[in-house]
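S1.2 Input.
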Amino acid sequence: MNIFQEIFTTEGRLNRGKFFKYYLLITLMGATATFVTSCMATLFTGDPNGTLVTMITVLWAVLATAGACMLMVRRLHDLDKNGALFLVSFIPVVGLIFLVYLFFAEGQVGRNRFGEDPLAQ
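S1.3 Output.
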């Protein structure tokens, strides 16, 4: 499985380590993409907030949000919770607390209704 298949799926479970790694990867890639496009736009047009930068930033934000939501669903599956609970992450302040919970909560040991224990594999 390549990294995009790992991130953009809601099937199965995802342990804390991989969740943190993939979430960090999405965040760093987004920051890098925004920085690079802003620098290029400034170099070529003199406007760091031009239409091209905005379009690329919005596209990246949509992809990153979708990937983050899918990662949260799989992490919730590891905790033997319904994946729809990821919607809590969109509530201001509560969403941040929820994300911290997902980073640190220990997954269910052994098989659950969403699949095998990812640490047992």
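S1.4 Remarks. The chain has a mean pLDDT of 89.
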